[in-house]
Write a structure and sequence with these properties.
Largest sheet: none
Shape: flat
Radius of gyration: 23 Å
Order of helices and strands: HHHHHHHHH
Amino acid sequence: MSQSDAIPEFQKSKTGEGGDVSLTNLSAFSSGPGIRSATDILAIVAVAVVIIGGAEFALRWFEVPQYIMPPPSLIAWALFDEFPLIAPHLGYTLVELFSGFAIGSIIGLILAAVVTQFPFAEKIVAPYILLLVTTPMLALVPLLILRFGFGYTPRIIAVALAAGPMVMINAATGFRRVDSAKIALARSYGASTLQIFWKIRAPMALPMILVGLMIGAIFGLLTAVGAEMVGGGFGLGNRLTSYSSMIQMPQFFAVVLLLSILGILIYVLFFFIGKKWASWEA
């Protein structure tokens, strides 16, 4: 292909064409200052100290029993003290999450690409995706356990079924959010459908793809924990069931705290990925 026949590179205008910036779109990563000021950090820390300290004082002042709600200090100590016992179960949960998320994400991205390129396929696939989105995956876990046993397999399948539709829906939305004028111009230069997809649709859809991956990962984590609570002898969900049955509430809330940290890490991970690879969307 000669230089005159090359597909032109399209750049995002400063005014933006991707819609408003919001917390539901990873384009928000590039809006505003990249690093919080010292005042912001101090304010966040101060609020956390007030909330945690207030809860500690109130629970001890009113002598709330530990089996109802332990003070934050006991929860923190339980997490530190029990972590050697919790760590293997954390590893099991992460294996389920990563495996199911990878499978579901790959299938979701492929289906999103297919339905955006072939409208007829969307008419066939859309009802089933809607069925998966509206069906609680935990309701299927007992059936999966009956078929595949109490090992990793039913949990990985449940995570994939929970994450895949979220990735597909957001990715398909991103693939469609492309300026038709850019596609028309690319076609006028002789670009094929595959070239248009890789050079125009996929880059422009990256922010929405990252949103779908983030939501899919969070839904996958929740599904993995729920599946572990339904059946099986390992995983953080199993620890929640075990600690609650023995009324070990400091340990129970320590696992809840650990799951919250995992959710925050997932958000932060995709935050920085979006900031590095999709900051142009702002």
